[in-house]
Design a protein that fits this description.
Length: 478
Amino acid sequence: MTMHALSPDLLGALRDAVGPNGMTVDAAGMAKYLGDWSGDHHGEALAVLRPASVAEVQAVVRLCASLGLGIIPQGGNTGLVAGAIDIETAGSVVVSLERLNAIRCVDADNFVLQADAGCILQTVKDAVDEQDCLFPLALGAQGSCQIGGNAASNAGGINVLRYGMARDLILGLEVVLPDGELWNGSSGLRKNNTGYDLKQLFIGSEGTLGIITGVELKLFPKPVRTETAYLGLASFEAAIALFRQARRASADLMSAFEIIGSECIALARLIDVNMVSPVEAPVHVLIELSASAAIDLRTLLVDFLTEAMDSGQVIDAVLAESSAQAKSFWAIREGLVEGQAKRGYHVRTDLSVRISDIPALIDQARRFVAEDHRGWVPLAYGHAGDGNIHFNVLPPEGLDEREARARGTDITAGLYRIANSLGGSISAEHGIGRTRHRTFMAGLAPAHRRLIGTLKNALDPQGLMNPGCLLPATETAP
Ligand SMILES: Cc1cc2nc3c(=O)[nH]c(=O)nc-3n(C[C@H](O)[C@H](O)[C@H](O)COP(=O)(O)OP(=O)(O)OC[C@H]3O[C@@H](n4cnc5c(N)ncnc54)[C@H](O)[C@@H]3O)c2cc1C
């Protein structure tokens, strides 16, 4: 890829493509787009372009393609893996979708929504809620991340065990291809078994194959009953055994099952000093059942929890008596993530193993940190019902950041080794970005690696779409 300084001619052409309000080149204006949510990843870009229509996205892409200019698609910049900004992006332009943000239509009769890619996830959820529907993708960043970013990163979140990941929730996509042509893969159809399912290529492609401009989503009936309980258990083994029983006993109406190591609670208190944990126990579980009809979820929940407490499997349990109390339980789960961000740089992972291997993963990872990285503080929590554990590690307080980052790289590599040795994945949901691309490619079988390179080169022969993301630049040289 050719590196460019922005000549006055190029500046003018880009401004013409997006209009005067759609381009920013000064440092102050670009700052918001050049740092991610976590504060861990900062980058550079030649310009930030903010197209306000699909036609403007096409014009920008055509121009960049003709000039050999790299394009970094950007949603809410909450992706955590340096996919939407990085130091490597200095020779490219950021294309933010934030002005392409209309709900196109909510078709409650067919349980379908169409929206521009730049719609904030929470806006999508609110729009369908008004029509007695549910869009079940739910994650801590839902007030900032965009639905196009969710599609591009195949986001997961807390309701995956019931409804699946973004990949399972998307009926169709509209994408501007790397040469500027528009591909519309939305038909409103639930079943369309006609050859390659092209939308799946773009879901999880992290901006490397095109810019998603529109999404068509599956909706569900809105739950009218929800029961939430906060439990205390003695071990992760007990938590996983409970998950198995709870799934059967709840008639598969469970919509969330989160586990939280008690060491994480102190982090939630950094966000709310008055936060009181409902239980005292080594392992906490947040469980939610929901239904779209008047089913007696309370009895289901109480019955199996009574049994689990009688057998000693559950030490303590608090059932939410109101939606406000349920919210306070979830505030602990959300607060512990925000609390980590307050601690600055730390090792952050989203490992995935078979559900039954979660206790082994946590046990081995904790031993690895205790033996090889004394003073570092391990945190284990996650979407246990999906086998997804965030095993994060805080540096000792006061450790110089440069030293912490160097050590953090070793710790991350060790954690990936442990996940791999259990047959797991280095990314359950955040994706590859630029923080794991080398580990990702190195771990692939030759046929897998070749297929990925073939697809990338076929769709983006100039290698202009999010260069260096997912595939290190050397893998994509045309
Ligand atoms: C507090 C917090 C909690 C989180 N919890 C979860 C969780 O539970 N589950 C989970 O899966 N993730 C979680 N995340 C990660 C993140 O929110 C998701 O990955 C989200 O889907 C990213 O969306 P975004 O709009 O911010 O995308 P960005 O970060 O802007 O971009 C992500 C990637 O997608 C590409 N991209 C963005 N928009 C487009 C587009 N329109 N077309 C093509 N490519 C595009 C970018 O180039 C980049 O490679 C969390 C993050 C935070 C900060």
